Each structure stands twice: as structure tokens, then as C-alpha cells.
């Protein structure tokens, strides 16, 4: 089966670990779940040592009772394979299962994400456990979906991984000549003459000052790709073990949004549906989790995803862990739905009594009360989701704007020795996404391999590596009248991070109509204001010196010897009025807004509430063609908006006529079904 699990309403609930509690607590929990509208529980995530207490011993007694208890209460389960953390006996019996870190130290038993993905013992035992669980519960009436492992991550640098890496390279390149050419190993006398000479790039080999400083970008890029594939291999092996007994129940694993170590685009084809855990940075604006939601939706070609985890109140993994204020949980949950979530789930349902997550937020605290503010907020949202029912399920986002997100470019850019180590891929990508979203445009966040034919605007900031036929496909967007926007440090290298033997921005040059001969890099506090005529944007970090090759200046630098030269250009391309925009520096928000809004305006993509600060809009279209408009007020004050067409608020039942004012409270939400 391919797609999200079939439900009649938005699944509501989350991670539940009743194995930590005596069974009399379970009864109390389920009574509280009923009061909160909880209908879906993720169980078994960290149960390996419980289910397999010894190499040849399996005991499903407790898990049987957990699953049956959920079914008796009418709840569905997302059943995990329990393989995310090793049991102690496995690490003792097979020490090679423990990871070797970047500094070359073999770890002892402890923590989680603690297994070597190349270990035959781990692969054999984890897939055996997954298969036994699937065989036992495949036909259980409570089963809704399979949850493989948990939040895959980390890397290993042991001898097993070194040998696996060599095999991965042989398959990728076929010959040492091809590998040497890709990695440019004539530099520093690195030419390899035998596969056995290749070692993982680590603190003991090619790196200094940490993972982002490497002598050879090619080998480090490939090791990150290899690590992605090695962990993916573990997922696929467990999925196949599950599929052997449960061929039709959807399978997923929980991603972590913009998680740098793993290229989720390489994983996406192997998931039946995408799911992820949303824990935004403390100071993140609302467009930050929105970008991650849209990235997750883009993994499966725009299909809905599941919000597998979020905190109902606070986290426990940071130095400072602020509490979600009244209304913030509701707003964050509806924001996920607005961007494509077909489930709203939490970590965790009941607070752990001990260990590092005992202070992590939970629907039910240690005292088991139902009169706390957090429980009331969760219950209130449960009632609201219940009233909406299944209206939003399967709905898609009708975006005409795409933003390209590329892990390879992210990795290559941030380990490049020049022009600047101060440039952060996520921050720049977010700045262009933020500009489009605050202008009211719906945005699909897609891989560089995506079909771009449905989009009028393609935003491609920091497209550092240009791979395959991407340049031609971007030109095709402009040839049919669309607009492509890219930025400084784009078009710098091929898939191996080798510089193009042509003018910067490489294959993007004809579309952008510019040539970049030099680039200036300065400290973070130094600025060069960019003049748009009626706006000055204090640009920072990198300043490329652009020589137009047909493009016209839109804005110019104002200081230094290159004052008056173009900082932003526009190039007419093709016979249908297409355009290529090149932004040669890091603009501030106002400057980025100017560029993006001018592009969106050209295609009629500015939303009706673009001038209302703090109000986010998002559109979804249901399988039967019903249009849903989500209005989210992230501000601290009430706003009043005119309704532009006949609509009904699904949360209150109130009908609106065109032109009628709609009031949004602070942190307020409205879901309009448009006539």
C-alpha cells in the first residue's frame, strides 16, 4: 500500500510507553485519553530489551496486553519495531555493533542511536525482531501503521563501515580512475591505486577542526551519501521483514525536518507516507516549522504527511526549555494541518518517571491529573479536531511556487573553504521561503530532481551544486514564461563539488545572463548597502562582482571599489517573457522581500492578506475539489480581515458572505471552506 493510513478523521494521540508503568495506571490513562479525544497511540518504540531479553528468548506478553488494551478502548495503534536502541546483551555479545565516532573511539554501551549500520549482527537481529513483531500483530484489529525504528541519525567510522564504504564506492564509480577523477585526487598526491587504501573521512584522516573542515570535499560528500544509504538500508531491511507478513499496512519512520546528516530525498521513495517530529528552535519564527512541514510534504510529491511528534508543553533536551503559552499548541497543530498534515500526534502521552526525558512535556503528567492547563488544551484541540472530522484528509496544496531544497548543496556549501564559512544554508533558504510565505504564496519545497512543469516561480537559493539536467529544466521554466530566482554561491560545482571550467554561475549562466569574475567575503558585522532606488538593503557576508551578459541591474552595491555594480539582476529569457533573477549577495529581510514580491507579483501570486503582519495563510484542496483556506494569527493582537468569497468556518460553523469582516484572536485559527 502506498499512502497515508486510511482513517475517517485526523488521528490524534502520540507516543505511549505503558511498559514503564504498572497496569493499573493504564486504565487511568485510557480514561483520560477518552476525555481528551485521543484515538491513536504509537507504541513499542523502545521495547527491544523487553521483547527480546536474551539472544534466543522472545517475550511479547507485555506488548500483547498493551495492544489489546488499546483495541478494547477503541483506539488504533502505530506499532514500532522497537529497534532504535540496542539491548545491553546485544552490545556485550557483539561489541562491533557499538559505533566508532568521528574521532576514532569505539563506544561502549549506552544512549540511543547507538548501533553501527554496517554491522551484520545488528542487521540480522533487528530484521528478525521486526519480522516476529509483524508476524504476531499483522492482523490485529487495532493496527493502523508500522513505525520502523525511530529518528534515524548519526554516523559510524568503524572498520565495518570502512569496508562497506569501499563497496558502495565500487558500485557508484565502477573504477578507481573514475573515483580519482571525481575526487580530484591528483591534488596533494592522493591518487588511489587500490580500493583498500580508501578510509572514511574523519578526524584521523581528511578532517581538521571538526566535520566541516575537510581536505577533500568529494570524499566527505560521498561519505555523507553513504551514511544516508547505510541507515536507509537498515530501514529497508526492516520494512521488507514487516512486508513479508503485513503487505498492505502502510509503513513509515519519523524524520526530523531539516535534519542535516541525512538526505531524506533519498529515503522518500521507500516510505509509504512521510512523517516527522516537530521541535522548532527556541527563537524560530513561524515560517521555520512551516518550511519543515512543506519539506516533508514535498518528499512524497505533495501527498499529506503525519505530524508524528510535537511537545504538548515543553521539551527536555535543551539548556533552556520554555513552556508553550496558552494557544500556542493549538496554533502549531493547525499550522501542521494547514501545510499538509493528516495526523496530529505528541511525544509523549504520559511523562516518564525517570531518565533524561522525565521533564519532557506530556499530555498526562506524573500525577495523572486531568485538570492541568496542558491537559485542557490537549482536550480542547481534540474536540475541535473531532468536529472537523475527515474534511481535510487527503487534501493537497495547489502551489504555483516551488523552492528547491538540496542536501548535497547544503553539505558542500558548509564544508567549503571559501568564500565564507559564515553562510548558513538553512538560514538563506528560509529567508526566501519566508519572503514567499509572508507574501501569501503557497510553496512546494521540492528536490532538485522534481518535475517543475507545474510552477510559475522557482526559488533556488544557494544552489551550490548543479547536477544532471537541472540547468536545462530551470531554463524550461523560463522558456514557458516562468521565473527562476537564484543567489550568490550558486552554480559553483558539479555533483562531486568540482568547479565548472567556465564562468560562475556555471550552467546557470545563460539563464541568469551574468558572469561573476570575483567575490568579496567580509566579517559578519560588515555591510554593503544595496540600492533598489527606493530601498536600501544592508547586504552581508558575500558580495559577488557581477558582469552582466544580457541581464539588467535591479539593485546595485553602494560602497567599496565595486560601488555601482549590480547586486541584483534580471534577465529576459525565452520567447514567452520568462526571467532569471540573480541575487549576488545576502540581503536582509526587506531586500529579500523586495525581490521575491516583485517576482510573485508578476505572476499574480501575492495573497490578499500579504500586508497583514503576523497572519499566515495556507490553501489545501480536498480530493473532491473543496478548497480550504487556513488563516493563522501568529501575532499578539486581534486582527480583522475581510472575507473575499462565501465561506464557512469549519471550527465554529459560522458562515461568511463576501466582504464580511472576520476577526482572528491573538494566536487564533480559522479554517474556511470556500464556496
From TrEMBL:
Residues 399-605 form the Beta-galactosidase trimerisation domain. Residues 614-674 form the Beta-galactosidase C-terminal domain. SUPFAM superfamilies: (Trans)glycosidases, Class I glutamine amidotransferase-like. Its EC number is 3.2.1.23. Keywords: Glycosidase, Hydrolase. The keyword Hydrolase applies. GO terms for molecular function: beta-galactosidase activity. Gene3D superfamilies: 3.40.50.880, Glycosidases (3.20.20.80), Golgi alpha-mannosidase II (2.60.40.1180). The keyword Phosphoprotein does not apply. Residues 15-386 form the Glycoside hydrolase family 42 N-terminal domain. InterPro entries: Beta_galactosidase_C, Beta_galactosidase_Trimer, Class_I_gatase-like, GH, Glyco_hydro_42, Glyco_hydro_42_N, Glyco_hydro_b. Pfam families: Glyco_hydro_42 (PF02449), Glyco_hydro_42C (PF08533), Glyco_hydro_42M (PF08532). It catalyses: Hydrolysis of terminal non-reducing beta-D-galactose residues in beta-D-galactosides. Belongs to the glycosyl hydrolase 42 family. This is Beta-galactosidase.
Amino acid at each position: 500500500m502506498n499512502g497515508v493510513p486510511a482513517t475517517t478523521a485526523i488521528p490524534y494521540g502520540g507516543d505511549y510507553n505503558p511498559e514503564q508503568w504498572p497496569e493499573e495506571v493504564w486504565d487511568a490513562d485510557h480514561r483520560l485519553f477518552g476525555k481528551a479525544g485521543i484515538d491513536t497511540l504509537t507504541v513499542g518504540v523502545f521495547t527491544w530489551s523487553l521483547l527480546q531479553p536474551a539472544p534466543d528468548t522472545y517475550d511479547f506478553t507485555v506488548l500483547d496486553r498493551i495492544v489489546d488494551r488499546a483495541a478494547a478502548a477503541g483506539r488504533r495503534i502505530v506499532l514500532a519495531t522497537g529497534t532504535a536502541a540496542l539491548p545491553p546483551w546485544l552490545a556485550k555479545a557483539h561489541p562491533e555493533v557499538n559505533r566508532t565516532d568521528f574521532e576514532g573511539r569505539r563506544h561502549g554501551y549506552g544512549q540511543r542511536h547507538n548501533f553501527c549500520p554496517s554491522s551484520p549482527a545488528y542487521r540480522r537481529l533487528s530484521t528478525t525482531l521486526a519480522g516476529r513483531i509483524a508476524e504476531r500483530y499483522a492482523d490485529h484489529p487495532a493496527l493502523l501503521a508500522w513505525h520502523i525504528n525511530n529518528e534515524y541519525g548519526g554516523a559510524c567510522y568503524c572498520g565495518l563501515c570502512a569496508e562497506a564504504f569501499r563497496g558502495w564506492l565500487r558500485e557508484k564509480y565502477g573504477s578507481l580512475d573514475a573515483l580519482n577523477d571525481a575526487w580530484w585526487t591528483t591534488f596533494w598526491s592522493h591518487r588511489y591505486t587500490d580500493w583498500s587504501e580508501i578510509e572514511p573521512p574523519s578526524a584521523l584522516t581528511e578532517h581538521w577542526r571538526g566535520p566541516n573542515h575537510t581536505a577533500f570535499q568529494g570524499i566527505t560528500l560521498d561519505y555523507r551519501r553513504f551514511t544516508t544509504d547505510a541507515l536507509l538500508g537498515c530501514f529497508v531491511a526492516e520494512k521488507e521483514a514487516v512486508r513479508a507478513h503485513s503487505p498492505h499496512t502502510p509503513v513509515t519512520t519519523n524524520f526530523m525536518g531539516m535534519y542535516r546528516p541525512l538526505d531524506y530525498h533519498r529515503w522518500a521513495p521507500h516510505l509509504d507516507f512521510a512523517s516527522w517530529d516537530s521541535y522548532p528552535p527556541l527563537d524560530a519564527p513561524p515560517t521555520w516549522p512551516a518550511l519543515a512541514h512543506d519539506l516533508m510534504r514535498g518528499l512524497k510529491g505533495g501527498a499529506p504527511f503525519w505530524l508524528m511528534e510535537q511537545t504538548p508543553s515543553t521539551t527536555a533536551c535543551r539548556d533552556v526549555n520554555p513552556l508553550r503559552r496558552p494557544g500556542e499548541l493549538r496554533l502549531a497543530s493547525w499550522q501542521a494541518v494547514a501545510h499538509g498534515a493528516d495526523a496530529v500526534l505528541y511525544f509523549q502521552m504520559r511523562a516518564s518517571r525517570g531518565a533524561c526525558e522525565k521533564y519532557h512535556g506530556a499530555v498526562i503528567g506524573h500525577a495523572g491529573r486531568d485538570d492541568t492547563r496542558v491537559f485542557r488544551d490537549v482536550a480542547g484541540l481534540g474536540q475541535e479536531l473531532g468536529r472537523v472530522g475527515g474534511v481535510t484528509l487527503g487534501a493537497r496544496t495547489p502551489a504555483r511556487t516551488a523552492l528547491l531544497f538540496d542536501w548535497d548543496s547544503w553539505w558542500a556549501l558548509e564544508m567549503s573553504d571559501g568564500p565564507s564559512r559564515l553562510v548558513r544554508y538553512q538560514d538563506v533558504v528560509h529567508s526566501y521561503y519566508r519572503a514567499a510565505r509572508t507574501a501569501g504564496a503557497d510553496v512546494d519545497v521540492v528536490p532538485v530532481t522534481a518535475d517543475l512543469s507545474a510552477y510559475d516561480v522557482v526559488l533556488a537559493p544557494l544552489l551550490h551544486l548543479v547536477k544532471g539536467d537541472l540547468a536545462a529544466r530551470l531554463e524550461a521554466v523560463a522558456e514557458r514564461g516562468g521565473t527562476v530566482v537564484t543567489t550568490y554561491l550558486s552554480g559553483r560545482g558539479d555533483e562531486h563539488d568540482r568547479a565548472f571550467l567556465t564562468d560562475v554561475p556555471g550552467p546557470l549562466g545563460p539563464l541568469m545572463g551574468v558572469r561573476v569574475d570575483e567575490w568579496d567575503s567580509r566579517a559578519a558585522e560588515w555591510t554593503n548597502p544595496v540600492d533598489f532606488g527606493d530601498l536600501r538593503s544592508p547586504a552581508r557576508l558575500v558580495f559577488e562582482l557581477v558582469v552582466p551578459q544580457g541581464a539588467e541591474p535591479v539593485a546595485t552595491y553602494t560602497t567599496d571599489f565595486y560601488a555601482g555594480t549590480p547586486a541584483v539582476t534580471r534577465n529576459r529569457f525565452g520567447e514567452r517573457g520568462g526571467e532569471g533573477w540573480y541575487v549576488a549577495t545576502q540581503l536582509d529581510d526587506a531586500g529579500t522581500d523586495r525581490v521575491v514580491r516583485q517576482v510573485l507579483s508578476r505572476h499574480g501570486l501575492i495573497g490578499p492578506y500579504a500586508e497583514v503582519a503576523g497572519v499566515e495563510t495556507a490553501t489545501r484542496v480536498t480530493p473532491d475539489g473543496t478548497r480550504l483556506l487556513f488563516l493563522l494569527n501568529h501575532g499578539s493582537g486581534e486582527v480583522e480581515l475581510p472575507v473575499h468569497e462565501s465561506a464557512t468556518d469549519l471550527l465554529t460553523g459560522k458562515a461568511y458572505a463576501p466582504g464580511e469582516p472576520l476577526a482572528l484572536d491573538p494566536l487564533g485559527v480559522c479554517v474556511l471552506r470556500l464556496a
